[in-house]
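Below is one protein, fold included:
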Amino acid sequence: MEYLKVAQDLEMYGVSYLPIKNSRQTPLWLGIDALGLNVYEMDDRLTPKVGFPWNEIRKLAYSHSKFTVKPTDTTAKDLVFHCDGVSTCKLILALCTGNHELYARRRGPDSIEVQQMKAQAKEAKNARDMERERLLAERRSRELMEERYLKMERAMQEQEIAYEISQSTLTDYQHKVKELESQLEEEKRIRMELQAMQRRLEEVNQQLALESAASVEERLRLRQERDMVVEQIKQQQKLIDEQVAEKHMLEAELAKGPEFNRINGDLRRDSCEQELECLDGLQKPEDDRQALAVTDMDHAKRLEMMRLELNPTRDRRKLQQVDIRYEENVSRGMDKYRTLHAIRQGNTKKRVDQFESM
């Protein structure tokens, strides 16, 4: 059935070709199909040149090898052509009679039984369409829910990663705070030792001043002790300076904590906004209507894709003239029905004259 749906739109589908001659004895092809009579040139059975639909034909007759087609337009001349013999005329008459009867039957009023069958078929088709739409809606809803679930899962994973990073950063900050506290305690201890050394230095200086008359050996010992205390004071002061510099560096790193927390909070708010946008996307029924509106074009798109896929495998050397003409028609945007519309332009008299002049 799918093949027939495609084949019925082809130019040569259902056409019976029989050789005829017009009044000028020009060899031509007469094409008989379900839509009417068409006249073709001998070297081109793909594109008709003149066409007569069945609703323009009133009567058919033949005498020996002469065949006459009487149009419904009384002002037009009869379409007269010659065949090879009586047998060809009989075949043309039988084909024309059968196709014309089917043409009229298809366009006539239906019987009650046929109307009932069509109504039942229409109801069944509507039920199938509704079921298909329901299944499509369920599938779209499921896909949207799955997409929403995946987005939420990704957002949760991102939040977990951000939480782990913040926890790790917080642990680092706590460790640095403890280090800073221990350094402050160490600095306090060193300052106390420094103060004790400074008091000892003052005592030594006072003792030197009081004991100026002491022996040389005692003054030398006191000077050495004073120099040693001064050196210890310098070392303690250097250590204090290093501790202060390290403390300032830790305080600068701790000062960055609020900025990190602010950025982390902004990231979570962005995720919430994106999630709300995803929920808003569910309220768009016009997307479904647009998808259903282009369903009829899917078949043509698939055929075009298949044609493009098969083109590389074709042997251009084996193409016949009819294949070349078909490709030319496709490139010009012509198909079966556009061609029939073009050759049936004008009144019957004009087309009969065109046939006789071929």
Strands lie at 16-21, 27-32, 36-41, 50-53, 57-63, 66-71, 79-82. The chain is about 65% helix and 10% strand. The two ends are 39 Å apart (CA to CA).
